[in-house]
Design goal:
Elements: H1 2-23, H2 52-72, E1 81-89, E2 98-109, E3 112-123, E4 130-137, H3 155-160, E5 164-169, H4 185-188, H5 202-218, E6 223-233, H6 235-246, E7 252-256, H7 274-280, H8 305-310, E8 314-320, H9 328-345, E9 363-364, E10 368-373, H10 381-395
Parallel strand pairs: 4-5, 4-6, 6-7, 7-8, 8-10
Antiparallel strand pairs: 1-2, 2-3, 3-5, 9-10
Bound molecules: beta-D-galactopyranuronic acid.
Length: 397
Amino acid sequence: MQTRLKLLAVFLPILLTSKMALSQVNYDESKVPPLHLPSIFISEKGKVIDSKEDWENHRRPEIFRLFESEVYGQIPKDFDQVSFEVNERANHEFNSIAKLEEVDIKIRRGEGSHVMRLNVFLPKESNGPYPIILLINHRAPEEDGSLAEEGYWPVAELIERGFATASFHAETVAPDDTTRYVNGILTNLYPEQKEKSDGLKALGAWGWGAIRAMDYFEQHEGINASKSVLVGHSRSGKAALWASANDPRWAITYANESGCGGAALSKRKFGETIEIINNRFTHWFAENFRKYNDAEESLPLDQHMLPALIAPRAVYYASAKADEWADPKGEYLGLQIGSEVFSWIYAKESPFKTNWEELKGPVSSNTLGYHIREGEHGLIWEDWEIFLEFAKKSLGI
Ligand code: GTR
């Protein structure tokens, strides 16, 4: 009985706060607060940034550091050794068209070590080198052990279009769980990160996994790592964007319905908010992000600055009309406003001349693109099909 009471005392406040926050979810555009976004082009010291040099040497590092300290936490870059153990599997689902490499990526740092599993499919017909698409997978593996869910990771369709494709599961670097997330690279490689208010958390750990996958691609003769695409859906979309801000080797970053803490502007407070996401997923973001629970106005940055960090490399977002929780308009606006770095600093044409309300179909240039489709939250074949048109154009294939 006593334990029950204790449990109640612990959980009741959590339940009440999350209930309160949920009852305040706003889906009414007329109730969105007026947007006061921090400027991408004015430095912390008030200097106007108008050259590539000032952007790359001063303002970009400032914004990067803000995301690192206030939102996602660090992605540690150091380790002592990385090695790859490759097992080519003879029999698998896509045997007739693809080779499957099951790769154990082994990382050593000091006394610590960790092994992450990466699955790589390569077209069988010739030797490449092939452009590659990496999907960060946070979904439960199918019961037969296969990681290729229909639509979500359309291996056959990607192979048939001449891409190699790879995926790793979140579990292999940091489990997607409020307490178990430490049972991966956090404990095995970077234990000191656990103590920091801007330390590595699960989203950053998944990003780290993508960066290690890139280490494998770069030394692979059959892979053209300069034509590499990083894809994440929803929570993995948030991780993909942060990974690409940390690692300039990705040619294209595609965040599908990544919503709050990903593509969508936090200060709009439309759909999922910082307070809701931090209360439900305590293991995703840096401790510091909690300062902005129900205090979005005090955030010194917003998500329009995230694609700006990836510039001039290509960025693609997608939304779904019924996915209001992720705030489709906020996702589009984030990219539209962030695209100013592409156009002003890098002279890359922005395709986002149209207001979100007036979009008639997918919009894209060679470096930026967006689509919104009918239907619910999910990464489905329709999304891939539209995205692949952009990817081919952007990579020149
Ligand atoms: C939701 C979460 C979103 C999004 C989504 C997903 O529950 O609130 O931020 O990440 O999960 O990953 O599918």
